[in-house]
Design brief:
Blueprint lengths: L22 H4 L8 E2 L4 E2 L3 H9 L2 H5 L7 E3 L2 E5 L4 E4 L5 E3 L12 E2 L2 E2 L5 H6 L8 H12 L11 H6 L15 H9 L7 E3 L2 E8 L4 E5 L4 E4 L2 H10 L5 H7 L46 E5 L7 H13 L4 E7 H4 E3 L2 E2 L2 H12 L3 E7 L18 H13 L6 E4 L6 H4 L6 H18 L4 E4 L16 H10 L11 E4 L31 H14 L6 E7 L19 H16 L4 E6 L13 H5 L10 H8 L4
Parallel strand pairs: 13-14, 13-22, 14-17, 17-18, 18-19, 19-20, 20-21, 21-22
Antiparallel strand pairs: 1-2, 3-4, 4-5, 5-6, 7-8, 9-10, 10-11, 11-12, 15-16
Helix pairs in contact: 10-12, 13-15, 15-16, 18-20
């Protein structure tokens, strides 16, 4: 499988440009001024921070889009426009980003830039020239005009006003042009119109490209360094740049499952990309463990390499949890006879990747099932034994267990077994087993499936089901779970939509019941918990996703109304909303990689965020880049 290759990119010029930030954009509302919530990264290095402040701040560099890491023997940090590099003498310089060895390209994201002009290169003053400082300023003024093609491009003015006296108040004003040169380098081309869009005029410099936009009459720098990050990672890589960069030694080198997180270390010596693009938080500490960012994965049945690649995708996204469903019947092959080989391999893989683990246990072996059919055991004590055996074996290695799955549906309980009175004994037995085997593990009450349908023997409205469960023996259930798990679904409704705004449904349907609105439904669960005196317990989203599929199966028609970009945007929005709810302990995105194990006719296919070959859908890239405070 190939890791994290983006199949689609937004081909619009605005992706290359950032307007001059306002004061509100420049100042992040946090007690840590070095942390930028806009991108989820922090400027940890004191020398980089000082350089950032004294060379124009966000206005010049854009926001940080990486941590500090080692590339080609130097400590660097990537910003949207520039790449800072720590020099051997302790000083800071910016990379000549457009040099042949880095990003010498002329086409990015549908835009065409002027190529380097050999005549201009030959005329550029040499650094060793005794009159270099004067000569280079004259050279820039002669070759970076303020007028071109009858348009006020202001390339020279932009160059010499990049770093102001306010940015470097203690510096001799005579040094400011040299600071501007640090940011842009020398011009390497004449100005030129974009051949496909004459609204834009570009000029190429060693370290960046200026763009004049006739629609606004403004001149600004393009976000080129962000595209170097895309080359390294493969994320958000436009097709034209992907084609041009395939032979680059930097191309798709970033990989969480390799040593030093480098795919081809022989072509990238003296480098270490470990955690380079894993989001940080204010204060520069590791991501908080108070909220569980996780993904539902399929690893059982995979080869060792397949398991490692799956865990690597989760880790590369900056997520700290994996959720794997465990089929009881596949482990207990005869009464008291267990085959733990697959589960052992999943646990070992997750541990090597530093992942925490949630197991959801379902489907009793046939020799334990109720007479007449059904998926639950006739004797709940058999589940207690199984859960105790499992929790003992993986004590300290598996952090959470969900007791059964969507027990308000017959497909999970068996026809005729859908009743809270049938689930409670299972929950009590399973919880007792986990607590006996590993008292530190979190026990989750199995999530009901969101549905408004009450069909005898088949399904019960999820909210009604929980009300019935709490009603048994005056709330007996309260002693047998640590948190409530939920499986709300987005259907075709953006996360912030409610039953009061049914018109926001992208499909025009799936909007006539509260269960179609994920956060509304979870809010109703929370209200019920408060009414039951269970407000101290958290809610965990153990499955949450959005389906995007051009050919969904019956019952999932809404999937065809969501584009891959809708899926990406809605997942990020949902994580942000869930993280903002104090009573939510975590969210396990549904799903990472089920396209590798089910056909497109299966509804699980559309929820997946990587393709069958392991390449990324836009949702994966969006979640990688999502800040995870």
């Amino acid at each position: 499988m190939q890791l994290a290759r983006i199949a689609a990119a937004v081909v619009v010029l605005s992706a290359l440009v950032i307007t001059t930030p306002t004061a509100a954009q420049t100042t992040t509302p946090t007690a840590d001024p070095r942390f930028f919530a806009q991108t989820g990264f922090r400027i940890d290095s004191d020398v980089f921070w000082n350089f950032f402040q004294q060379r124009g701040n966000v206005r010049t560099f854009g926001f940080p889009v990486s941590r500090t890491f080692t590339l080609d023997g130097f400590q660097i940090q990537i910003f949207q426009r520039e790449i800072m590099q720590l020099q051997p003498d302790g000083g800071v310089q910016t990379l000549n980003l457009l040099d042949p060895g880095l990003m010498p390209y002329t086409k990015i994201n549908g835009s065409t830039f002027p190529a380097p002009d050999p005549a201009i290169a030959a005329a550029t003053p040499l650094v060793g020239d005794p009159n270099y400082n004067t000569a280079i300023q004259t050279f820039v003024r002669n070759n970076a005009p303020d007028t071109f093609g009858g348009q006020p491009v202001n390339f020279g003015t932009t160059f010499f006003s990049t770093v102001t006296a306010q940015d470097a108040p203690s510096a001799d004003p005579a040094l400011l042009p040299g600071f501007d040169l640090q940011i842009w380098g020398a011009p390497t081309s004449q100005p030129a119109f974009d051949p496909t869009n004459h609204q834009f005029i570009y000029q190429r410099f060693q370290r960046g490209i200026m763009m004049y936009d006739q629609t606004c009459g403004c001149t600004q720098g393009l976000l080129l360094a962000d595209y170097f990050k895309s080359i390294l990672t493969g994320w958000n890589l436009p097709p034209d740049l992907q084609q041009a960069a395939q032979t680059s030694r930097y191309y798709q080198q970033y990989s969480a499952i390799q040593a030093q997180w480098i795919n081809r270390p022989a072509s990238l010596p003296a480098s270490d990309l470990t955690n380079a693009f894993v989001s940080e938080q204010a204060g520069g500490t590791a991501l908080s463990s108070s909220f569980a960012y996780g993904m539902n994965v399929q690893m059982t049945g995979f080869s060792a390499q397949g398991k490692d690649l799956t865990a690597g995708l989760v880790k590369q996204a900056g997520f700290g949890w994996v959720s794997q469903q465990i089929q009881w019947f596949a482990v207990e092959t005869a009464p008291g006879v267990f085959d733990w080989s697959e589960v052992d391999a999943v646990v070992s893989t997750a541990q090597r990747s530093g992942m925490k683990i949630l197991f959801s246990v379902v489907k009793a072996p046939t020799f334990y099932q109720r007479a007449g059919g059904g998926l639950i055991p006739a004797d709940p004590t058999t589940l207690r034994t199984f859960m105790q055996t499992m929790a003992t074996r993986y004590a300290g290695k598996v952090q959470a267990y969900e007791i059964w799955n969507e027990e308000n549906l017959s497909r999970e309980m068996g026809v005729g077994n859908v009743a809270a009175t049938n689930y409670l004994p299972l929950l009590e037995a399973g919880t007792a087993g986990v607590r006996a085997g590993d008292p530190t593990a979190l026990v989750l009450l199995g999530a009901p499936s969101p549905t408004g349908a009450d069909i005898a023997g088949q399904s019960i409205n999820d909210l009604t089901y929980l009300q019935q469960l709490y009603a048994i023996n005056n709330g007996e259930v309260k002693g047998f779970y640590d948190a409530l798990s939920v499986h709300p679904s987005g259907f075709s409704n953006p996360p912030n939509c409610t039953p009061a705004t049914p018109q926001c449904s992208l499909s025009g349907g799936f909007s006539n019941h509260d269960s179609f609105f994920a956060f509304t439904r979870v809010g109703e669960y929370r209200t019920l918990m408060m009414q039951q005196g269970e407000g101290a317990k958290q809610i965990w989203f153990t499955e949450f996703g959005y389906c995007s599929s051009p050919t969904p199966p019956a019952g999932f028609e809404y999937c065809s109304s969501l584009t891959e970009l809708n899926q990406a945007n809605f997942l990020v929005q949902a994580f942000t909303m869930a993280r903002g709810l104090s009573y939510v302990g975590g969210m396990m995105m549904w799903n990472l990689n089920f396209q590798q194990v089910v056909p497109q006719t299966n509804e699980m296919w559309g929820f997946g965020i990587v393709h069958a070959d392991g390449s990324a859908r836009p949702a994966y890239s969006a979640l990688v880049q999502m800040p995870k405070p």
